[in-house]
Amino acid sequence: MRATSPSREVRRARLAVTVTFLVHAATFATWAPRIPSIKQGLGLDHDDLGIALGGLAVGLLIGTRLTGRMEKRGRTGLAIRILVPAQSAALIAPAYAIDLLTLTVALAFLGLLGGMLDVAMNAHAVAVERLYRRPIMSGFHGAWSIGSMVGSAIAALVAREGVDVRLHFIVAGVLVAVVSAPFLTGLLKPDREAAITGHDVATSQAARPPAALIVVMMMAVMGFGSFLGEGAIADWSAVYLNENLGTSVAFAALGLSVFSGAMAASRLVADRIGTRFGPVVVARAGAAISAVGYVVFLLSPSPVLALIGFSLAGFGLGPAVPVVFSAAGNTRTRRRSSVLGPVVSAGYVGAVVGPVVIGVVAQHVGLAWALAIPLGFVVLIIVAAGLLRGAAGGAGTESADVAIHAHGPATTDG
Predict the structure, then answer these.
(1) CB 220 within 8 A of CB 343
(2) Does pLDDT of 300 surpass 80?
(3) Stretch 311-324: mean pLDDT, rounded?
(4) Are residues 194 and 207 in the same domain?
(5) pTM over 0.85, yes/no
(6) Residue ending a domain, choose from 136, 167, 199
(7) Are residues 216 and 256 in the same domain?
(8) Which of 74, 75, 133, 314 is deepest in the core (most CB within 10 A)?
(9) What CA–CA distance (Å, rounded) separates 63 from 408?
(10) Which of 109-113, 190-194, 266-270, 393-397 has the least mean pLDDT?
(11) Cα–Cα distance between 338 and 193 in angstroms, integer?
């Protein structure tokens, strides 16, 4: 059935969610390039910095677990309007830290708000996607990738000019809050959001817990593996190119660049592919391309060929998170109005723990073997992609409806 053209309200909501993804990414991308300046200003060593970044990770994880009630009540739009300026303000705090303790607390609070906003914006994206009656989630995540690249590039330029971190973060925080405010008025109103999401646990189908648990766990593992793959490339691609293939430091930096660029590009085209072929095909084909990319760069003796491998790995992995999140947002159990929160949390665990595990494994068996760990998760996505048919553009989750209740097909519920 041919989808009708979305109303002005729905188009405004899509733009508002896109802006939210952009500013969420840009805020964290503003912080990261200034880490050396803050580290030096406070006289921290590597161990101290690890503790502070641990605070950020803990805050992110806790934040993703505090959003269940607002999802259930259809109030993620209201939450976003509060969290975006709050996160912008929280960005300023790390610049004013006076020691390790205050920096850790400031980063934990920034992470807390960032984790809450991450779940809220993805849940709201699911609601808007239903109204569109076709896949648009990958586009939102493509906007996140663009926001991250733009934010980090601006921050790097500001740092090169020697601008004080406090001034930088104040200006960035104010700009984000002020510029985004007019767009956020377009988010769905609570009554509209609640009607679309239909998050009434009492109306869910009866579930058989063992099967439901397996489905949710597999989605969580796919989210974990997707984030682990991104984190592994972010933290280890330059080291791999430099030490294993003997490239210069400058050339080694290209590994992450081509990976991130290819990931952003794939997310910007994945929705059209999903509209035609469905989310299972998008996830499975993307994972297959990513697996080829991993094999290419892990076995390549040539740095240039390795870059091709990194780009294939990023291009294929790009749609995985949006499709997994869309499926999770459209899936509920008897006790949960949506399993999006747990899946996002699992993703953050993968992003935080994965690169550390790869470092430990690399110490014992070598970096090439350690970087094969994400490849295993990519293969898992290929095998388990059938569980993602509840994402927009799919045909529901009838194959698993003995375990869970999934909101209906995208042709009727968006």
Answers:
(1) yes
(2) yes
(3) 93
(4) no
(5) no
(6) 199
(7) yes
(8) 314
(9) 29
(10) 393-397
(11) 14
